[in-house]
Amino acid sequence: AVAAAMRLGAVLSALRPALPLLLGLSLGCSLSLLRASWSHGAAEERCLAPGPPALPAHGAAPEAAEGRPVSGHEDFRPRIVPYYRDPNKPYKKVLRTRYIQTELGFHERLFVAVLTSKATLNTLAVAVNKTVAHHFPRLLYFTGLRSAKVPHGMVLVAHGDERPIWLMYETMNYIHQHFGSDYDWFYIMQDDTYAQAEQVKALVTHLSINQDVYLGRAEEFIGGDEQARYCHGGFGYLLSRSLLLKLHPHLDSCRNEILSVRPDEWLGRCIIDFLGITCVSQLQGQNYHTYELAKNTEPEKEEEEEFQAALAVHPVSDMTLMYRLHKQFSRIQLDRVYQEIQDLQMQIRNLTALTPAGEAGVTWPVGINAPFLPKSRFEVISWDYFTEQHLFSCPDGSPKCELSGASKADVSEIIESAVEQLNRLYQPLLRFSKRQLLNGYRRFDPTRGMEYTLDLLLEAATQKGHSHVLAKRVSLVRPLSKVEIIPMPYVTEATRVQLVLPLTVQDLDFVANFLDMFAMNTLDTHDNALLTLLFIYHPYDAQRVGQVDVFAGVKAMVGELEKRYAEVKIPWISVKTEVPSQVKLMDIVSKKHPVDTLFFLASVWTEINMEFLNRCRMNTISNWQVFFPVHFQEFNPALVYRGEQTPSSNTDFLRDGHFDRHSFAEACFYNSDYMAARTKLAADILDRDEVLESMEVFDVFLHYSGLHLFRAVEPGLVQKYTLRSCNPRLSEELYHRCVLSNLEGLASRSHLAMALFEQEQANST
After folding, report:
1. Is the pLDDT of residue 53 over 60?
2. Residues 413, 549: one domain?
3. Which domain holds residue 505?
4. Do the Cβ atoms of 598 and 621 come closer than 8 Å?
5. Would you tell me how many other CB atoms lie within 10 Å of the CB of residue 515?
6. How far, in whole angstroms, is CA 269 from its chain's centroid?
7. Same structural domain, 471 and 418
8. With the C-alpha atoms ordered 160, 164, 166, 169, is the resulting torsion angle positive or negative?
9. Same domain flag for 448 and 520
10. How many domains does the chain have?
């Protein structure tokens, strides 16, 4: 018995840690069984109870005996529709839309129509286009008769008749036919109306698109029904898509039956008679505020709340008044934004005080991201030192350069802003004026923007007239604004690329490799690319070309390629010159090709591949953008590997080399763009052709075209190491750039240091 008791005690002591778990499991099972019995009983009672069936628990939709949802509740539960294909019917391929937005039936939000005339097209309509047109997603101008020349940047639709009612009728028909299925809202205004574009866009975001909306400034008909209202056309009005679709079948009847002098009254009467909808100035909690300008009004002095809240202002008598209104409303909007920023900053301060970090967690400026914290010394963002005259971190690598252009304007604006902020902070007790910038530092932080630290020598004046000179350090941040996507024209990869390869006597050893790569990557793959060779003869070699042609071997290689590929012709052009200027050579090539030719100016060390040619096509846009790729230059293998085996290019791609930013030999551009820039250059230099020797094609586009210059690293252009010959007859800048390219292409700093170390060790022994 004692032994049994001891064994029982040992078992209980072993199970004691698990007793809470066992008790919890037992209690949970008991409660679940009890709840199941209650639920079962309640369900039986509901099934047996007379009257309409109750909704199931958890808000689920009721179902019939067949398992289908009851009518009226099909939106609450998704149904899987099985795919069934009738074997007796022929198969028809389903065509999908290009964009999912089209397939789902999404519409753009707002379309704007501006009613103008031939008399005001070049005045008020231009003012509307310059002030608010770029704020609306789509805006068209409608007129009866058009002038001989349409102002630039305006999409104009002329109906051929200046009668106001006819213009309104044709405009409504045109909007329905071309845009009725693409937009949810249609805003119609006159060219003597100033509309706050951002306020109009905000208005439509708060309105439901499921209602028939006729919103504007409601006016009474003369001698008509007191309940009916039409929207005054001078203040603009908003129509919903559903109303436009219902109105369109009745437009012909309205034109024949309704007589009116004013087009807005005619449209309002048409909507009322056939749809029974009257104009309203308030809908769904949103008000359509307007303001009527009096004669000789000065917008700068208008301080009424009604003026500041107005979505539309009418009448605007001339262009100057339109610009003044735009300036005043922009100032009002800017003040609202600044006040909203201050309110948000105050809320951030109040909320940050309640966080674990407390007030120490508030970043400066409030609401802007904290400065980037580097995790290693390689991530440290360096500061650039500057004064009011010089910059000590220059793009070309020189230690000191003159502060000019955008950098000078940036520094001047920052200093002016710093003094203004100090005066705003300390006035009226102190008044600061700048004497000198002692030190300036700036750096670009990609997480927040451009940061500045200024040491200013200031003169502080008190209210009593006393002044004192003091030095003060200030910090400023120019934060990153909202990122915008720049619209770009659509391009394809089907464009033919015309390769242009200039060759000199020094390039003969590398031509064979270039032609082999061209044949393998373009001719074998049937890529849409052609090649033109440009043989540059020295005057001495040109005189002896009848006896000894230095390019005879290259011409033989070209002949072999043309025999191998019967459909391919590789033309060449011979040029005699001592100074092979890139611009002069392109002048010759440009005249022999159509204006729509896409050129790729290559070098003999370039290894052509399909990947880069496609990027050349996509990055070059006619009348918009030219592309200057930065090729990858491999280092000298004698210095990098020092007798070791060279690794394969697949495993060490873009490793032992650098992107040569000093080279502008490769370029992609259209012939039409080059010809336009070259025409401006010719008018600037007149007959001074020696200026061309100091320029490259990049300089021509940079200084004599308004195109985008896209300069980016190109991993698809990899060049083997070679020591290039620099022509001393070129300009000093071009020769210096060539020498730098050779020097930086030798090896990296670590490889050069190791080579020097090994050389010193060898000399010491």
Report:
1. no
2. no
3. 497-751
4. no
5. 22
6. 45
7. yes
8. positive
9. no
10. 3
